[in-house]
From TrEMBL:
Keyword set, alphabetical order: ATP-binding, Ligase, Magnesium, Manganese, Metal-binding, Nucleotide-binding, Protein biosynthesis
Keyword presence, Protein biosynthesis: yes
Name the UniProt record assigns to this protein: Probable alpha-L-glutamate ligase
Family stated for the protein in its record: In the C-terminal section; belongs to the RimK family.
GO molecular function, one term: ATP binding
Cofactor(s) recorded in Swiss-Prot or TrEMBL: Mg(2+); Mn(2+)
Cellular component terms per the entry's GO annotation: cytoplasm
Domain named ATP-grasp: residues: 272-455
Source species, domain of life: Bacteria
InterPro entries registered for this protein in UniProt: Asp_endopeptidase, ATP-grasp, ATP-grasp_RimK-type, ATP_grasp_subdomain_1, Peptidase_aspartic_dom_sf, Rimk_N, Rp_bS6_RimK/Lys_biosynth_LsyX
Source species: Pseudooceanicola atlanticus
An example Gene Ontology biological process: translation
Length: 470
């Protein structure tokens, strides 16, 4: 006989009728379970159960109270659905339940088990371990309890455990009306990470505004709970788009960029006032309403050449370079004739038709490119034929970009800088920067960094200990 034929089988794990277990992939490091060989299927107490994702690969999200009697402790979970089946409980009630698979850990041993999701509110154990999960590796001793080492619910208050929580699948909404590179990349990257990503046309959202249950509706139905919203609000619908974002903020959804920051950044006058308030360098800028002030307006920003810019201009449109003082007066007169709001700005000649686009995600500049205007055009926008190349920025430029994004409270921003003789000057802070030009020129995975930021922000929040009497 060989040595392997004499090898003893693995020793059985001895379990009583009540034990401590872990479901690490669900972010549940400690659960007290009832071991029930009379039940075929294991069941986990879950509520707010909601499906999401593609029909070919459906997922379910749900929340768990891991500690009986502690409704203040809520752990959000998600998993791939493996089945949906009819289950009859011990009291004879039958219901359809979603079935998931997750590793079970007991006494250092781990193996995958099937779990059904159901509301076990009011029951002493928030998880039932059925015989299907026990297999032939477990020996159950019905008259005993806690044959394996006892765990502690205190782990749910540990910062280390919260930091190590699994990156559960998220349900994310992209507010966008366009099927462009940026929207497609957001969907592609999110789904690659296992998240459910839905593109929502902002203008088709409508809102139920009340104190008790504010809601966002879409195509005749209430929108589900999203873990995060990524706003891609076009300039033409800024007022309505930011109203929709405010509604998501009211509900408590994490929005990558908040309504206040988007509103402030879109209004060029407001944006420059924000930059000035935070002492962030920018070209000298002036604004006036009366035609009698034209001469003084020009004098405030210096001599020609200078820039005349519509307040709502985007992608370089509505931006005019006036080479002489007379040309500036003519452009200002024309804009006033159209009853358009505009500002006048110093022209940074040494920038030579180049600017730097820094993409800020969270507290980091994740990519930077140099944009150069086509031919004699002074506008370097890629939409107008400008070219882009990767560029190494200075510490001062990096700090300026971060300060500018922070001034508007934006977690995602494209900050446009000019390199002037007196240091970097902020031209614009874009709350919906395009990803195509910057990803191709810099060869950086900007959208991936955005999802890193989202995943870090929507993990379970710290849980406060319940105060005890005495």
């Amino acid at each position: 006989m060989t040595d392997t034929e004499h090898t003893d089988p693995s020793p059985l794990i001895r379990l009583g009728w009540e034990e401590w277990v872990s479901l690490p992939e669900l972010g549940l490091p400690t659960l007290k379970v009832k071991v029930d060989t009379g039940a075929k299927t294991s069941a986990l107490h879950a509520f707010d159960i909601e499906t999401f994702g593609r029909a070919t690969e459906p997922h379910v999200r749900f929340t768990v109270h891991p500690v009986p009697g502690r409704d203040d402790l809520v752990i959000p979970c998600s998993a791939k659905i493996t089945d949906r089946r009819e289950v009859t409980s011990s009291n004879g009630d039958t219901e359809m339940r979603y079935v998931i698979q997750s590793p079970l850990e007991i006494a250092g041993e781990t193996w995958p088990i099937e779990i059904t999701l159901t509301d076990r509110r009011g029951m002493a154990s928030h998880m039932l371990l059925g015989r299907q999960a026990l297999g032939d590796r477990v020996a159950v001793v019905p008259g005993e309890r806690f044959c394996q080492p006892e765990l502690s619910y205190e782990v749910y208050h540990s910062a280390r455990v919260r930091k190590a929580a699994p990156n559960r699948a998220l349900r994310i909404a992209v507010l966008s009306r366009e099927d462009n590179y940026s929207t497609r990349r957001l969907v592609e990257e999110g789904e690659k990470r296992g998240h459910g990503v839905e593109v929502i046309d902002t203008t088709r959202c409508y809102m139920a505004i009340n104190a008790l249950a504010p809601e966002v509706h879409y195509d005749g139905k209430r929108l589900p709970r999203y873990d995060a919203v990524i706003p891609r609000i076009g300039a033409s619908i800024t007022p309505y788009g930011t109203a929709v974002i405010r509604q998501f903020e009211t509900i408590g959804t994490y929005c990558v960029n908040g309504s206040a920051g988007i509103t402030a950044s879109r209004d060029k006058l407001h944006a420059h006032q924000v930059l000035a308030r935070h002492r962030i360098g920018m070209p000298a800028t002036a604004f006036a309403n009366s035609p009698k002030d034209t001469g003084n307006l020009i004098g405030l920003v210096g001599s020609a050449p200078l820039i005349v810019k519509l307040l709502e201009s985007t992608q370089g449109r509505g931006v005019v370079l006036a080479e002489t003082r007379k040309a500036a007066e003519s452009v200002i007169s024309a804009f006033r004739g159209l009853k358009a709001n505009f500002l006048v700005q110093h022209f940074v000649k040494e920038a030579a038709g180049e600017d730097i686009r820094c993409v800020v995600i969270g507290n980091k500049v994740v990519a930077s490119i140099k944009r150069k205007a086509e031919g004699d055009d002074f506008r370097s926008n890629l939409h107008l034929g400008g070219t882009a190349t990767a560029v190494r920025i200075t510490k001062e430029e990096r700090d300026t970009a971060l300060r500018a994004a922070r001034a508007f409270g934006l977690n995602m921003a494209g900050v446009d800088l000019l390199r002037s003789e007196s240091g970097p000057k902020v031209l614009e802070v874009n709350s919906s920067p395009g990803f195509e030009g910057v990803e191709r020129a810099s060869q950086k995975d900007v959208v991936g960094r955005l999802y890193d930021e989202i995943e870090s922000k929507v993990r379970p929040a710290p849980v406060r200990r319940r105060k005890t009497a005495g």
